[in-house]
Amino acid sequence: MTVLIAGGGIGGLTTALMLHQRGIDCEVFERSTEIKELGVGINTLPHAIKELAELGLLEALDAVGIRTLELIYQNRLGQVIWQEPRGLHAGLDFPQFSIHRGKLQRVLHEAVLGRLGNAAVHTGCEVVGFEQNKDQAILQIKERGSDRHREVSGSAIIACDGIHSVIRQSFHPGEGPPTWNGIMLWRGATEWEPFLTGESMVISGGMDAKLVLYPISREVTDSSKVLMNWAVGAKIGDAKAQPPRREDWNREGQMSELLPFVEDKFSLDVLDPLALIRGTEVFYEYPMCDRDPLTRWSRGRVTLLGDAAHPMYPVGSNGASQAILDARSLSDCLATNTNIVEALKAYEVERLPVTSEIVHTNRSGGPERVIDVVNQRAPDGFDDLHDVASAEELEAIVKGYSQLAGFNEDKVNAEKQ
Ligand SMILES: Cc1cc2nc3c(=O)[nH]c(=O)nc-3n(C[C@H](O)[C@H](O)[C@H](O)COP(=O)(O)OP(=O)(O)OC[C@H]3O[C@@H](n4cnc5c(N)ncnc54)[C@H](O)[C@@H]3O)c2cc1C
Predict the structure, then answer these.
(1) How many A from CA of 311 to the centre of ligand 1?
(2) Is 3.50.50.60 the CATH number for 2-37+100-177+292-363?
């Protein structure tokens, strides 16, 4: 069996490592001519880290990321709404990581090259289509920088080509672009003094904007600092309208568009967001987009994985984490089922329902809804949080989400074998 993987992002590279671990041959076809360290910070949840640990990557992750110790939700005045330990500190057997997306991708890429060999990753290969028959699946590729087209055949195709997946598009030609909820997300990272434990993640929110802060690396020029990741999300348009610019994770943001959502909006103990943002040389914008969940991912010898299958709003730290869980499920199904078509179907049955529910839950704010609930009732802050929302109400939102996303204690620890 040879599996053809379209896309060398987090999902595609993890799939390659997991298939290789199970003795299944595979090759990755990536559009970019070089796998560069793109993006800024992401959080990877403990159940996904468990999978990467089983691939032997924990040490490599520790070298480039930061284990997230706690998560704090607060209002724009820095009043704490919810605070909880994360990863090992929450009694789980695996940590959560705050990490630069590009560095996570590099860790995976280096592992793929080291284990599968350089010939397993084909860069500069844009997937433009596919065909299949009862015996094989054929990937149609255009080589970047030339007009050369070629075809590669294998036993199955896994589409890991992200939110603009061409393979998903050929399954659903009428689907159109991703839908935007009117929120723009600006993201950046710069060297800054650590706050609280030095491994804390803080999400602060007012009615106008939410601000996410967490350190992602200790690899900095000034050893008293960390690489501090920040993101600001603010509503700038109508839900269902087209975003002002096409969604592209690499599009640079404009300071003049962002500042009105930060100036005089936050008063935090942990740091001065305005100074942090002004001190960031380059930052990026990304309209918060997703797509409606599909009813099918697999057709014959071809299936979808990660953002190609279930693009979701980047709340609740689930984008990369769910792609990693997909990779585990898919590899197990292919390793334990000699019929490829049935294996891809079994993967879909396991992963489609849960990821669809996460897409829907993220639309209503995911766990960050605790901030919205409190802000709606007490926009100017509170003397006693419990006059505004009960501990039970807040717990139901946050714990309900971790249960849904699958990183609660019972699941992570029980599944370790
Ligand atoms: C450049 C970039 C920066 C990002 N930055 C952030 C961030 O800062 N924060 C965040 O939360 N999420 C970010 N994401 C998204 C995040 O990585 C994903 O949500 C998550 O990791 C799921 O991974 P995925 O592999 O399914 O998709 P992706 O990580 O999007 O990977 C898709 C891969 O497929 C490749 N590809 C696309 N089309 C084709 C094609 N036709 N042929 C061959 N290859 C193709 C892309 O170049 C990419 O390498 C970023 C994604 C990208 C591509």
Answers:
(1) 10
(2) yes
Q: Hey, what's the torsion of the CAs at 77, 78, 82, 86, to 10 degrees?
A: 150
CATH level 3 topology of 181-290: D-Amino Acid Oxidase; Chain A, domain 2 (3.30.9)
Q: Is 32 in the pocket of ligand 1 (CB under 6 A)?
A: yes
What are the tens digits of pLDDT across the range 142-160? Answer: 999 888 999 999 999 999 9
216 contacts: CB under 8 Å, gap ≥ 6? 40, 41, 65, 66, 98, 99, 100, 189, 226, 227, 228, 229
Report the C-alpha gap between 340 and 85 in whole angstroms: 41
- DSSP state letters, 3-64: EEEE--SHHHHHHHHHHHHTT-EEEEE-SSSS----S-EEEE-HHHHHHHHHTT-HHHHHHH
Indicate which residue's Cα is closest to atom 39 of ligand 1: 161
Taking Cα atoms as reference points, which of 379, 310, 390, 385 lies closest to residue 350? 310
- Measuring from atom 9 of ligand 1, which residue has the nearest CA? 42
Whether ligand 1 lies within 6 angstroms of the CB of 127 is answered as yes
Q: Where are the alpha helices (DSSP H) in 213-318?
A: 255-258, 273-278
The verdict on pTM exceeding 0.90 is: yes
Q: What angle do CA 49, 54, 407 make, to 5 degrees?
A: 35
Question: What are the domain boundaries of the chain?
Answer: 2-37+100-177+292-363, 181-290
Distance 26 CA to ligand 1 centre (A): 19
Is the distance from the beta carbon of residue 403 to the nearest atom of ligand 1 less than 6 Å? no
Bridge partners, 303 (sequence order): 158
Q: Ligand 1 centre and the CA of 315: distance in Å?
A: 16
Q: How far is the CA of 127 from the centre of ligand 1 (A)?
A: 14
Q: What is the largest CA-CA distance in the chain?
A: 68
Q: Could you state, in chain order, the average pLDDT of each consecutive group of 10 residues for the chain (417 residues)?
A: 97 98 98 89 94 97 96 96 93 94 97 98 97 97 92 98 96 92 94 97 88 95 95 88 84 94 94 96 94 97 98 89 97 97 98 95 87 94 95 92 78 60
Nearest Cα to 113, choosing from 53, 182, 34? Answer: 34
Ligand 1: distance of its center to the CA of 249 in Å? 8
The best mutation among 158, 161, 280 to test binding of ligand 1, ranked by most ligand atoms within 8 Å of the C-beta, falls on 161
